[in-house]
C-alpha cells in the first residue's frame, strides 16, 4: 500500500511538472487559425469606439466609456450563425444590465457588495456551464458589476450608470443587425430559443466547473475583503473565472493561469503608457477600439496577448469612470488581484481528476494527460 501511494505521488508530481512545462512553452506558441475572427473583432471595436466618440462630443467621455462596455456582449455566441446570434445577444445585454443594477445598488456597502459578488458569480457559473454557453463565460458580467460599483462610489448616480450600460448594450444589438444586409446570412433558418438554450446537462465536467466558479467567488472575495478592499474584489474573481474557463481539466487551468498573469503585467504596462502619453481624447477612443480589435482577434490563438490588450482597455474604462485615471497605485493592485484570483483558480483545478487531453484541441500546445 505504501509503495502504491509513493508511485501515485511520484506520478502526480511528474504530471504537474509536465503541465507547468507545457504551460510555459505555450507562451511561445500561437494556436493554428480557426474560423476568421476579424468580423467579430471589427464589430466589437466599432461597438466600443462609437459611444466613446459620442461621449467626447458631448463632453462626457466617462459616460461614453461606460456605454462602450456594450462591446462586451459581442463575443458571446460568436460561433453561431448571425440570425441565431441576434436572437441571443439581447439576452447577453440583459444579463449585463442586471449585474449593473446589482453592482450599482449594493455599491455603498462593502459587505453587501462582497456578498453580491459571490452570489452573482455563482449564478453566472451555473448558467454558463450548465447551458454550455461557452466563452467568454462569466467574465464580462462580473466586470460590469465591478465597474458599476466603482462608478457609483466615484460619485455617479446609480440610475445614470445603469441607463448608460443599457444604452451601450442596446447599441450593440443595433450594430449586430447591420451585417444582415448580406443575403447569405438569410440562407440559414435560425433555431428557436428553446433549442439554442436547451435544458442544462449536468455531467461531471459541468458540475466541477460550477463548483470551482463558486469556490473562486467565495475565496477570492473573502481574501480581498479581509486583506485588501471589497471594492476591488471583482477583479480577483474575474481573473479566477477566466482561468477556470469553460473546459474542465488541470492542464488548461495552469496554462490559462500563467497566460493571465503574464498578460496582465504586460497590459498594466500598456495602460501606464496610455495614461501618461497625454493623447487627445479622440486618439484615446481609437486606441481603445484598436485594443478591443486585437483582443477579439487573438483570444483563440494566444491568450496572453489577448489579456495584454483587454487589461489596459478595462483599466481605462474603470479609472475614467471612477475619476482615478492615471493613478499608478491601481496598477499594482490589479497585478496583486490577478495573482490572487488566478492562483485560487489553478488550485481549484485539483477538483478535476487527471484526464486525457482536450479532444477539441482548444489549448496550445496540445497537452498530454494532466
Q: Give the averaged pLDDT, no decimals.
A: 79
- Count of discrete alpha- or pi-helical segments spanning 4 or more residues: 14
Distance between the termini: 24 Å
Model regions low in confidence, pLDDT < 50 over at least 5 residues: 356-370
Decide which structural class fits the backbone. Answer: mainly alpha
Radius of gyration: 20 Å
Secondary structure: number of strands: 0
Write a short abstract of this structure.
The chain has 370 residues and is mainly α. The protein has helices at 2-26, 38-57, 61-67, 82-106, 110-130, 139-153, 158-177, 193-196, 204-227, 233-244, 250-275, 281-298, 303-322, 329-348.
Can you walk me through this structure?
This protein has 370 residues and is mainly α. Helix content is 69%, strand content 0%. α2 runs antiparallel to α3, α3 packs across α13 and α5 runs antiparallel to α9. It is globular, with a radius of gyration of 20 Å.
Overview features:
370 residues, mainly alpha, 14 helices, 69% helix, globular, disordered C terminus
Write the layout of secondary structure elements.
Elements: H1 2-26, H2 38-57, H3 61-67, H4 82-106, H5 110-130, H6 139-153, H7 158-177, H8 193-196, H9 204-227, H10 233-244, H11 250-275, H12 281-298, H13 303-322, H14 329-348
